[in-house]
Automatic annotation (TrEMBL):
Protein name: Transport permease protein
Main location: membrane
Species of the source: Luteipulveratus flavus
PANTHER family assigned to the protein according to its UniProt record, in alphabetical order: NODULATION PROTEIN J
Record keyword Transmembrane present: yes
Family: Belongs to the ABC-2 integral membrane protein family.
TM spans (from-to): 43-63, 83-102, 123-150, 156-180, 192-209, 250-273
Length: 280
């Protein structure tokens, strides 16, 4: 009898506000709520897919013969697909930021803050729901890539590893979007910043063009771009042959990607959570 009472008390305590189990339940409930809203507004998915799709069709299909890759490189669509996968993360920054900023302006975030739930769970649920959206976008773009001739040769394990790397990059970018949405009030400003990040980080990298096609100073900057190191890692996972230079980022893409993305993710999440918690 005593054991039964203690067990019931322990289960009740685990679900008290602030307990880890309660926080997990709250996060799951908020993710489901967020996914329902996304299902009612499919334009979010179209917005995330559109830019990578334009890159894939325009550069990877229409103008692929105008781009010369180094000797020993596989088909250009194979070279480009890792960059297309990473652009899903870049394309998520703007829509995520606009959504968060809209929730702030409508007072939804204040209502969440007044409820007896973990404040971290609100933004974490937001990030996880947007990550699901990014995964769906990757699936759609992968299917289109296969139609256009993309053929990964790294096996099932390699394909899954590459997709996992793209999702890690997307998750870091989603937190950049959340932090941007907490910091900037106007949707027009957010849209401009998101578009700038998308264009600059994509084309100032080796995701679209090989480093040998760039001027010296541009190449030095591009090689340290996390889009470049991420593309290199995904190419290795998908079995794409692409010669690289002898720079440190080219020789150690995993180290550079882990340090840069780790700093971006931790910094963005810390700022967003602190701002949400302390907002008057």
């Amino acid at each position: 009898m005593t054991t039964e009472v203690v067990t019931k008390q322990a289960l009740t305590t685990d679900r008290l506000p602030g307990s880890p189990l309660r926080a997990v339940e709250e996060t799951a409930d908020l993710v489901i709520r967020r996914m329902r809203h996304m299902r009612a507004a499919p334009g979010r998915l179209i917005g995330v897919i559109l830019n990578p799709l334009v890159l894939l069709l325009a550069v990877g299909y229409l103008f692929k013969d105008a781009i010369r890759l180094p000797v020993g490189t596989t088909d250009y669509v194979d070279y480009l697909m890792p960059g297309v996968a990473l652009q899903v993360g870049l394309a998520s920054v703007g829509p995520t930021a606009i959504s968060v900023s809209g929730d702030v302006q409508r007072g939804l975030m204040e209502r969440f803050r007044s409820m007896p739930i973990s404040r971290r769970s609100v933004l974490i649920a937001h990030s996880l729901a947007d990550l699901v959206l990014a995964a769906v976008a990757l699936l759609v773009l992968g299917g289109i890539g296969l139609v256009l001739g993309w053929r990964p040769s790294g096996g099932a394990a390699g394909v899954l590893s590459g997709v996992g790397l793209a999702l890690v990059f997307a998750y870091a970018m989603i937190w950049v979007g959340i932090a941007l949405g907490m910091a900037v009030k106007h949707a027009e400003s957010i849209d401009s910043i998101g578009a700038l990040l998308l264009v600059v980080l994509t084309f100032l990298s080796t995701a679209v063009l090989p480093p040998t096609a760039m001027p010296g100073w541009v190449r030095a900057v591009a090689e340290w771009n996390p889009v470049s190191t991420g593309s290199r890692l995904i190419r290795d996972a998908w079995g794409t042959d692409a010669p690289t230079g002898g720079s440190y980022p080219a020789a150690h893409p995993g180290v550079v990607a882990a340090v840069v993305l780790g700093a971006v993710l931790i910094g963005s999440a810390a700022y967003a959570l602190r701002t949400f918690t302390n907002r008057a």
